[in-house]
Write a structure and sequence with these properties.
Number of strands: 13
Distance between the termini: 27 Å
Number of helices: 14
Shape: globular
Largest sheet: 9 strands, mixed
Radius of gyration: 21 Å
CATH superfamily of the largest domain: Aldolase class I
CATH architecture of the largest domain: Alpha-Beta Barrel
Order of helices and strands: EEEHEHEHEHHEHEHHEEHEHHHEEHH
Number of domains: 2
CATH class of the largest domain: Alpha Beta
Helix content: 40-55%
CATH topology of the largest domain: TIM Barrel
Strand order of the largest sheet: 9-10-8-7-6-5-4-1-11
Length: about 350
């Protein structure tokens, strides 16, 4: 089972964020939420029938929001009987929540992987994003993570931020001094009804062009590759063997169970653009194999091949015998446009 537990509480709302989250909730509200999660987990495990010999949990992910704003021990105690050494257990952290105490609690609770949202190492950019931490606080938090013995940890960054272009190389340089095992680099998406969207609408903020954001992403890809972090999804880079197994499982169409206010679940066969994107990026996209995996798409094989060959001519794909297509660096930048012609 791949299990995701959502924690919807935040210290503050970031300017770009459209995710389900609450700011300013009381300790009592968070305690009630934890109790709700424990009840949901008890119900889940009471009705679970894992395959013979299979571990109860293959991957487990605490996301948010900010999980550490809740008292996690009751949830960790509930989960403990269902973990084993092979379970990848990830927890997202905000730099301000990182303390030796919480890190020791997470290690004792079976957490094997941490993901810290940094976004930038420029204080002016962090302030404009609405991030509540400074670059120094993020660096100190990272040192605590390593000192606590976590040898599988990563950071998140955002490129394409307004007026952040000049500081982007410095953010990357600092990020690489940390020697992260994983790095997610997200290009800024303007989500409706966010503070950033309102500022853009009112003319207070001017977004950079797509070319600027793509150039920053390209710089990041080269720098991370030089540091040994391989691109394994459009926004995800990792050292070999440090890819996020939970994300890979969901991207490849495996079932997953979501618990919490902002969580969802999936059961059964699912055709996902991300599945096709993974193949184009890393595994190679073979039309015959894709049609075998998803028979409902089989009538499109002829159309697929014509489309894919056109993209080869345009330099967006390469084709390796017998008929396996892969994205070129330029094709990676416009992958979603290619996918729109496939599914």
């Amino acid at each position: 089972m791949n299990l995701y537990v959502h924690f919807p509480f935040c210290r503050s709302k970031c300017a770009y964020c459209a995710l389900h989250s609450h700011v300013g909730r009381s300790d009592e509200e968070r305690r009630r939420y934890v109790a709700h999660i424990v009840r949901a987990l008890d119900h889940l495990f009471a009705n679970q029938q894992p395959a013979p010999g299979a571990p109860p949990l293959s991957t487990l992910y605490f996301g948010g929001g900010t999980p550490a704003l809740c008292e996690l021990q009751p949830i960790l105690d509930c989960l403990a009987p269902h973990l084993n050494p092979s379970t990848e257990f990830t927890v997202e952290l905000n730099p301000l929540d990182v303390t030796p105490a919480i890190l020791n609690q997470l290690r004792a609770g079976g957490v094997t992987r941490l993901s810290m949202g940094v976004q930038s190492f420029d204080d002016a950019v962090l302030r404009s994003m609405g991030r509540p931490h400074t670059a120094t606080q993020a660096l100190n938090a990272w040192k605590m993570i390593r000192d606590a013995g976590f040898d599988n940890a990563g950071i998140d960054l955002i490129c394409g931020w307004p007026e952040g272009h000049d500081s982007w190389p410095r953010t990357l340089d600092i990020a690489l001094t940390l020697n992260p095992d994983h790095c997610s680099v997200y290009t800024l998406i303007l989500e409706p009804e966010t503070r950033l969207a309102h500022d853009v609408e009112r003319g207070r903020v001017r977004l950079p062009s797509d070319d600027v954001a793509l150039a920053e992403l390209a710089v990041a890809e080269r720098a991370l590759a030089d540091a040994g972090l391989e691109r394994y999804e459009i926004s995800s880079f990792a050292k070999p063997g440090r890819e996020c197994l939970h994300n890979l499982a969901t991207w490849r169409g495996e079932d997953y169970t979501g618990i919490g206010d902002g969580a969802c679940s999936r059961e059964g066969s699912a055709i996902s653009r991300v599945i096709f994107r993974l193949r184009l990026l890393k595994e190679g996209f073979n039309p015959l194999q894709a049609a075998a995996d998803y028979p409902e798409l089989a009538p499109r094989i002829t159309e697929w091949c014509a489309t894919l060959d056109r993209y080869v001519t345009e330099g967006l794909l390469t084709c390796q015998p017998p008929a396996t297509y892969l994205l070129t660096p330029r094709g990676t930048e416009v992958c979603d446009s290619i996918l729109s012609d496939l599914i």
